Amino acid sequence: MEEKKQAGCAEAAEGLRRLLLLNSFPVAVSFSAEEELPEKARRPSSSLGHPVAICQGTAMVRSMGWTLGFLKEDHACPPSFLIFGLDEKAKEAGANLGETLSPLFGASRELCESTNEHMIMLPVGKYKSITLAPLEKAPFDPDVVLVYGNPAQVSRLVQGAVYHRGGAVTSSFTGRNSCVSEMVAPLVKGECQVIVPGSGERVFAHVQDTEMCFSFPGSWLEDIVSGLETTHRLGAMRYPTPFQGMRGAPQFPKTYHSMMKELGLLE
Fold it and tell me: I need a surface site. Which of 33, 42, 121, 257 has the fewest CB within 10 A?
């Protein structure tokens, strides 16, 4: 069964990378109510000797192809304890999250809290572990898939997402705590998300200025790859962008006209 899962994920990953020419691995994410991790998963606290922010883990997976497992002890980012419901103390500390983030991300505690209200938090204790793996090597059915790319590649993913399901991809942006939009929102809402990576991902996870993220529930994977394949084949749009100007007749300066007439290029 595990080999079948890996084969399906590998095929989907190949489709994404072939159709989008991605620079990094698509990332598969699994949430579990158990602390048991896949056999090959590395824990940051033991493999690196210290906990890390989960966005750093995502960066290691998508750039180096590692499989990482996070238990509570592997998280270094304080807001993550609240976002992922890792500890009852985090719920209590969450009351002070607005104060913690002000004035860094808002002019007042109240304004920071008003932003927090738009972020989805997981219930305390519902999940004990999070596993991140390159999609092509994922030993599990992903709950969420993350794909990083430039705006043109993300646009193609949006087109792939709506092809078989219709509707529109709607997202909200806070400029911080990107893991909420990338992992929690697709898990809870069962919808795709477009993400403009926030400050943590840029500072700690080396997300580039040209990169965005598109995340979606694992159950959408087959439809999105099929939508990409179909729109590519039908010519609705492709990546790289097939710029129309490349096929147009070039316009040269008038000083070229005499020579062009001699060569029969111009009447």
Answer: 33
Residue 92 pLDDT: 65
Distance CA 133, CA 38 (A): 10
CA–CA gap between residue 195 and residue 201 (Å, rounded)? 11
Instruction: Supply the angle between the helices 151-163 and 221-234 in degrees, to the nearest 10.
Output: 100
Q: Where are the domains of the chain?
A: 2-245
Main-chain dihedrals φ then ψ at residue 251, nearest 5 degrees: -110, 115
CA distance 9 to 180: 24
Residue 13: both structure tokens together = 């990953």
Q: Tell me how far apart the alpha carbons of residues 55 and 223 are, in angstroms, rounded to a whole number.
A: 26
Cis-peptide into 240, omega within 30 deg: yes
* CA pair distance 205, 182, nearest whole angstrom: 14
Rounded average pLDDT per 10-residue block, the chain, 267 residues? 70 97 98 96 97 98 98 95 87 68 88 88 95 97 98 98 97 93 98 96 96 98 98 95 89 95 93
Global pTM value? 0.92
For helices 2-20 and 221-234, angle between their N-to-C axes, nearest 10 degrees: 30
Three-state SS at 207? coil
Give the whole-angstrom CA distance, residue 36 versus residue 38. 7
